[in-house]
Amino acid sequence: MSGSLDPNRNVAQPGPAPEVEVRERLLIAASEVFARKGYAATSVNEIVAAAGVTKPVLYYYFQSKAGIYQALLEQAYRKFENIVQATLDHRGTVTERLLTLSARVCQLSEEHQAVVRLIHAIFYGPPQGAPFFDFEQFHNRLQNSFLTLVEEGIRTGELPPVNPADLTWAVLGMVSTRIECMLAPQCNLVLDQEGLNRVVRLILAGVQALGNQAAPLAGSGPDGSGAGCQALPESPIDKEKRHE
User: Fold this and answer.
1) In a domain, 43, yes or no
2) Separation CA 10–CA 91 (nearest Å)
């Protein structure tokens, strides 16, 4: 009948998923299966089943299990590098940027816990036959970024002239603890994102408060001269040891 409606007329028809979406689904599926089973025990069949695609699709984008593993870690480093560089480039106080970098690194880790678990399993455990990936670049970039901010703060007078490596390790230690709490939520004492922010602020406030009381510490500077570095007041335990 000429006046009848075509049920398909003006109705959007589902088309094939965009390539970016399919590729991302594969990467997410691979991260979850790798994190759960390990690299060696994971098969291509398990990855494609989790992604809802076929093996030829994985081979089209990544060529092999090793290929998708490498692509997954390269993507993780790009995301990590982007937030680190954006924080370093931001115009603000050193304190603001230290807090921001701490928060962003932990937020990224929380959003991609499967990838973080995989990195920890491969870096700290047996290699599982996985292709080589330079995991040290994550550690080196993060350490150097925090150190750069701390040194800037000391140079501009925002932070007192303490040993920059000591302060860097203090802040980095709390970032690492926050990430460990994500990976082991059964811990009795949990450090959440707000807690991390409070503790980092406490560290910086303590450094500011003690900076004026500190005395020069000979031989503790980066060049061994002690220039620009200060020692904290002696603790009761140190006093006891000194008098033994």
Assistant:
1) no
2) 50
